[in-house]
Structure formats: C-alpha cells, structure tokens
Amino acid sequence: MDPQNVTHPAASLSVGHLVLNASPVVQIILVLLVIASIASWTIIFEKWAVFASAFKALARFEKRFWSGGEMSQIYQHVSGDTNLETGAGSIFCAGYEEFQRQRGKIRPSDALDAARRAMRVAQMREVGRLENRLAFLASVSSVSPFVGLLGTVWGIMTAFMHIGAAGQATLATVAPPVAEALIATAAGLFAAIPATAAYNRYIHKLDKLDAQFEVFMDEFTNILHRQVPETKS
C-alpha cells in the first residue's frame, strides 16, 4: 500500500476539511455566521470611533461653555465650529435658537418651555445617531447561538443517518458529522460573544452620554431662567 494514498483520520477531522465537506445546510449556516461576525466587528470598530469622538466633543464643548462669556458669543463660537456643534453643542444651539426666536413674543416661561422642547428634540436626534446600528449587534448577540444550534442539530441528525445507513456506530461514521455540529456551535458563539460584549459596553456609554446631556439641559435651562425672570404683575 502506498503511504501517500492513505487518508489519515486526523487530516479528515481538520477544521478546513470538515467545513469543505460539510452538508450544504451546515455550510450555509457557517457562511451566514461568518457574514454576521464580519458585520459585527465592522460595527464594533465603527462605534468605538463614534463614541470616542462623542466624548471628546462633549469635553471640548463643556470647556468652552463654562469658560465664561456672553451666551451670544458662545453661540457664535459653537455654531461656527463643526467640532463643537455636535452632541451637547447641538443641544445648546437648538435651545438657544428657539429661546431667541420666542423671546419677547410669548411669556418667558413659555419661551423656556419652547427652548426645552427644542433641546429635547436635539437630544433625541443625537442619541439616535449614537444608537444607530447597535440593534444589529443585539440581533447577532441573541440570534447567532440559535443559528449555530440549528447547525448542531443538523449535524447530529446527519450522524444518526450515517449510523443507520452503515448499520453500526463507528468513529469514522460518527466523528465527521458530530465535528461539523461542534463547529457550527463554535461559530455561533464566536459571532455572539463579541457582539454581546460590545452591545453592553456601548449601551453603557450611550446611557452615560444621555445622562450628561440631561444634566446640561437642566443647567442651561436654569441659566436662561435666571437671565429672563418671570415678569410679576
């Protein structure tokens, strides 16, 4: 017997060999999980840059806002700088613009309410921008293990079918489909675990930024209230 023509069991159970010779259903499941994993990692790196930029923008704006000066000067500075007019900066601009628009036309308390509503809309817009595509990470986190489980169940079913066809349970009959099943499970976890960790991390960052936006809105509303007190009758 030519040693070169002997198929070694270890070679037949390698990951690459098992994937290439897996059943079409398992191969489709693995392809879907690989695509989901690639998309998840793309979003993970993208959102890392987005949140890092958001925290830096918040720090820059707060430094400028609390450095002092007239509100009109701060508004001109912030509205003319794309590095400041984002996050809390956009909330400030929306509130200031609405307050100036309504000031003198309606009661001061109503002008403050209008400014507060404008800031709330800007806040929701900023949170929505930061939250964009996080739902995909949540979906991958929750769905991928079940997709991998489907491949696992299919691989075990294939193993039993091979046993029935061969009439006996041998390692050569059972090992390949069982190994396919385990690969599908591993692929599902490989896609789900990073997505879960990243989603939880970014939701925490989003909540932190949202809370800081709320604090700024309260502080800015108080500043406007002190500048334009309610007229007593």
UniProtKB/TrEMBL annotation:
Keyword Glycoprotein attached: no
Record InterPro entries: ExbB/TolQ_transport, MotA_ExbB_proton_chnl, Tol-Pal_TolQ
Key words, A-Z: Cell cycle, Cell division, Cell inner membrane, Cell membrane, Membrane, Transmembrane, Transmembrane helix
Transmembrane segments: 25-45, 134-161, 181-199
Domain MotA/TolQ/ExbB proton channel stretches: 105-214
Gene Ontology annotations of biological process type: bacteriocin transport; cell division; protein import
Membrane topology: Multi-pass membrane protein
Pfam families: MotA_ExbB
Subcellular location: Cell inner membrane; Cell membrane
GO CC term, one of those recorded: plasma membrane
NCBIfam families: tolQ (TIGR02796)
Family, as annotated: Belongs to the ExbB/TolQ family.
Function, as annotated: Part of the Tol-Pal system, which plays a role in outer membrane invagination during cell division and is important for maintaining outer membrane integrity.
Assembly description: The Tol-Pal system is composed of five core proteins: the inner membrane proteins TolA, TolQ and TolR, the periplasmic protein TolB and the outer membrane protein Pal. They form a network linking the inner and outer membranes and the peptidoglycan layer.
Protein name (Swiss-Prot/TrEMBL): Tol-Pal system protein TolQ
Gene source species: Acidithiobacillus marinus
Organismal lineage: Bacteria, Pseudomonadati, Pseudomonadota, Acidithiobacillia, Acidithiobacillales
